[in-house]
């Protein structure tokens, strides 16, 4: 899994949490509204929120599992190739240093 994918999935999970929280707040704010249509709409929204919470928890579990897997693979690579890992880190540090020095 690439870093961009991990960041994207984490951002999606975070955004979904915000949407769920906003929808719950909307439901609380409209709880005093009378009428059959409002009650039906609130019930449908509540069901959708429940499903979204379940899917959000599943997505969060997947992100955590993938992150842990990437960490294990990276750790194994560094243990198997310590000098190569040091060289890569030094190269990345050099590039970052050059980019920062240009400013």
How would you summarize the topology of this molecule?
Elements: H1 3-29, H2 36-80, H3 82-101
Helix pairs in contact: 1-2, 2-3
Structure report:
The structure is a single chain. Helix content is 89%, strand content 0%. With 103 residues, the protein is mostly helical. It has one domain (3-78). The longest helix is centred in the middle third of the chain and has 45 residues, at 36-80. It is elongated, with a radius of gyration of 23 Å. The model has no long low-confidence stretch (mean pLDDT 80).
List the keywords.
elongated; 0% strand; mainly alpha; 89% helix; 103 residues
**Residue-averaged pLDDT:** 80
N-end to C-end Cα span = 32 Å
Q: Tell me the total number of β-strands.
A: 0
Helix content: over 70%
Instruction: Give the CA-based shape.
Output: elongated
Counted up, domains total: 1
Q: Determine the number of helices (DSSP H or I, runs of at least 4 residues).
A: 3
Order of helices and strands: HHH
Strand content: under 5%
| CA gyration radius, whole angstroms | 23 Å
Q: Which structural class matches the secondary elements? A: mainly alpha
Q: How many strands, what sense, and barrel or not for the largest sheet?
A: none
Question: What low-confidence regions span 5 or more consecutive residues with pLDDT below 50?
Answer: none
Could you give a quick summary of the protein structure above?
89% of the residues lie in helices and 0% in strands. The chain is mainly alpha-helical and 103 residues long.
